[in-house]
Structure formats: structure tokens, C-alpha cells
Design goal:
about 90 residues; mainly beta; Lipocalin; four-stranded antiparallel beta sheet; extended
Length: about 90
């Protein structure tokens, strides 16, 4: 959040409880093109030991070749909303 005080508060037990739950995970299940450079990513988010389905919007921002590794690469912007209280 670019605010050390806010970050510490968000890590606390009344928000993400990072001491008890130091990680969260997202497991993708499907990825499909919607139109143009817009895609939809469906999967499951696990937070606080609770797993719920989540749909994310994905915009392809560009693709090319990594000049150092000589491998394909792509840039994406991902959007979605998570209601934290759904994971209590």
C-alpha cells in the first residue's frame, strides 16, 4: 500500500492475520479469450484456510522476446475483487 503503518495494520489479526496465515494461493482452472486483448481467468483463491472460486479479468498489455533469456514473454494487468470477510 506504500504506507508502512497501513501495511502493518493489514497484517494484523483483524485483517489478514499474517502471523497465523502467512501465505495465500490462487490455483487457475481455465483461461479464455473474451475479446481483443481481454481474457478471463477462473480459479480458486485460498485465504485463511478457506477456498472460494474467483474470476479475474486479464488484459494482455504486450508480448515479445526476452532479450537476455531469448524466451517468449508477456505482460498482463489482472483485475478482480475479493471480499475479505468471505474468508473468515
Amino acid at each position: 500500500t506504500q504506507s508502512e503503518k497501513r501495511d502493518e495494520h493489514l497484517k494484523g489479526p483483524d485483517f489478514f492475520d499474517a502471523d497465523k496465515f502467512p501465505t495465500f494461493s490462487f490455483k487457475g482452472a481455465s483461461f479464455k479469450k473474451v475479446s481483443g486483448n481481454h481474457y478471463e481467468l477462473k480459479g480458486a483463491l485460498t485465504l485463511h484456510g478457506v477456498t472460494k472460486p474467483l474470476v479475474l479479468k486479464v488484459d494482455l498489455k504486450g508480448k515479445g522476446e526476452d532479450p537476455f533469456a531469448k524466451k517468449a514473454m508477456a505482460g498482463f494487468k489482472v483485475y478482480g475483487k475479493v471480499k475479505r470477510t468471505d474468508f473468515n
